[in-house]
Amino acid sequence: MWPFGRKGPSGFSWYSTAEEVTEGIDGAGLTAIVTGASSGIGAETARVLALRGVHVIMAVRNLSSGASVKEAILKEVPNAKIDVMELDLTSMASVRKFASDFKSRDLPLNILINNAGVMATPFLLSHDGIELQFATNYVGHFLLTDLLLENMKNTSRESKVEGRIVNVSSEGHKFAYKEGVRFDKINEQSGYNSIGAYGQSKLSNILHANELSRRFKEEGLQITANSLHPGSIITNLLRYHSFIDFLSRTFGKLILKNAQQGAATTCYVALHPQVKGVAGKYFSDSNIAETSANAKDADLAKKLWDFSIKLVS
Questions:
Q1: Closest CA to 295 of 233, 194, 211
Q2: Which burial class, exposed, middle or buried, applies to 108 when counting CB atoms under 10 A from its CB (0-12, 13-18, 19+)?
Q3: Helix (H/G/I), strand (E/B), else coil: 165
Q4: 226 vs 43: CA distance, rounded Å
Q5: pLDDT tens for each residue of 17-53
Q6: Which residues pair with 60 in a beta bridge?
Q7: How far apart are CA 246 and CA 254, in angstroms?
Q8: According to DSSP H, which parts of 160-291 are helical?
Q9: What long-range pairs does 14-18 form, CB within 8 A, spacing at least 24?
């Protein structure tokens, strides 16, 4: 992680915004799905991609909030190509419906940004009986990616343009449970720790991107998968911890990124030519960064993949 104003090898830093890291990039002809695009860095990611000419599909749980963001983007960028579709990542049925509805639109898919997430929730289960953070941050995105892969493969083959999958993880992956992923205790309330569970879900995002990269390389596909830490950001993710949320919003402007800075690394990894051909890497402040030992464990990534396939089947 590059200290605040110091630029890394990419030429960008902690202070860089999503507009700055995509300046001069023409995304016309590309189609991207952004999950969690109705607020925070998801909304800013959608705005900047649309500004660069990308056809953006906002995958959101709340259609009303999504429509408001779309309206705001269109006011700024009247010729933006942007659509809003419903997606609830806590429900596999909703994920399958979204994928089916997207397929029926007969659109290409160049970029998939798995951005939506929750943080440090009390112990709760999803619609499918899976611990909420693991379900929302990881399982829903794993299934979504799997269902959209054929489209991405066809798009990259036919367009000769590299496809990119971007998993928004977090430095919080370093606070996962000691064993990384508690495969046998995913849904157990006993021993549940909200930060450890958050870290587990974010670690899984990195392992997912790494395993995808390995598989794409084996298949010789022109698709990359990477993960990233957007930075510590003033968002509504801490709504389950009211006092910490109050502190972050009161004093956060001194040390936390705003949404424009928070969306920078996502937009950089999704669009920048410097990232062409780069796969299985973890980024922070629009530069390649270090992960935990668990995040580098190829055997753990493979075990998680197999576990996930059974979970969504």
A1: 211
A2: middle
A3: strand
A4: 20
A5: 999 999 999 999 999 999 999 999 999 999 999 999 9
A6: 86
A7: 14
A8: 194-219, 242-251, 259-262, 264-271
A9: 14/231, 14/257, 14/261, 14/285, 15/261, 16/261, 16/264, 16/285, 16/286, 17/260, 17/261, 17/263, 17/264, 18/44, 18/45, 18/48, 18/260, 18/261, 18/263, 18/264, 18/266, 18/267, 18/268
| Phi, psi values for residue 59, rounded to 5° | -95, 105
d(CA 90, CA 94): 8
pLDDT tens for 253-262 read 447 999 999 9
Q: Give the position of tokens 């999958």.
A: 165
Of the residues 15, 192, 240, 282, only one is catalytic, namely 192
Distance CA 135, CA 94 (A): 13
- 192 catalytically annotated: yes
Average pLDDT, the chain: 94
**Contact in structure between 181 and 300 (CB atoms under 8 Å):** yes
Burial classification of residue 222, based on how many CB atoms lie within 10 Å of its CB (0-12 exposed, 13-18 middle, 19 or more buried):
middle
Single-letter amino acid, residue 45: T
